[in-house]
Amino acid sequence: MAKLYFKYGTMDASKSADLLMTAHKYENQGKNIVCLRSNLDTRTEDGFIESRALTYKHKCFCFNKDTNLYDFIKNQNDQKINCILIDEAQFLTKKQVMELTEIVDFLKIPVICYGLKNSYIKGELFEGSKALLYFADSIQEIKSVCHFCDKKATMNLRIKNGKPILQSDTGNTVVIGDTQEGEDYFISTCRKHYFNPEIKK
Q: In the chain, fewer beta carbons within 10 Å around the N or the C end?
């Protein structure tokens, strides 16, 4: 039975690596998959999904907020699709998550979404993540460790010019960044260190 899966984790939890390994397993069995990624993620080469943890990358279709995912998949007439894998699923719109439920329920194709749950803004979920938490048949956490201690990381902390950013003036949850230290970057933390980061002055 086809299901909608949401696998979430903090930044640097190897979500894309998990997706790529899943893609490899399907294709190693001769099965056909479709990989999708939001075009809001500008950190990687357009048309590919890649991970800092692996040298392997996979071709994908980059969708935007206006892409009808149900129509896109329905029009893939060349061969049977065994699974759909979606990276950066937090950037899906609620409407697109509903389209994924239709793919699962009516086209009977399993869909596995990988993404962040929390934005860097305290108390705010991404639109796509919020919808997936509500509508997914299966929800799984990909665990990682806090940057400052050995507790499980559950939060994404933005560091800009050496200072933690817990609230955005604009309320915009979409800020594209990396985990490599610089002027503006992200680290994964536990709740305690999200509110009390041990940032060196």
A: C
Per the annotation, the verdict on 88 as an active-site residue is yes
Strand partners, 58: 49
Residue 22 sits at the vertex; the CA angle it makes with 113 and 124, to the nearest 5 degrees, is 25
Does 119 share its domain with 177?
Answer: no
The pLDDT tens digits of the residues spanning 146-188 come to 999 999 999 989 888 888 877 654 455 555 555 556 667 889 9
Closest CA relative to residue 123, chosen from 175, 164, 173: 173
Catalogue the E-assigned strands of 93-193.
111-115, 138-141, 155-160, 163-165, 184-189
Q: Which residues pair with 4 in a beta bridge?
A: 111
Q: Which of 88, 102, 181, 183 is catalytic?
A: 88
Residue range 109-134, pLDDT digits in tens: 999 999 999 888 776 889 999 999 99
CATH number (domain holding residue 22): 3.40.50.300
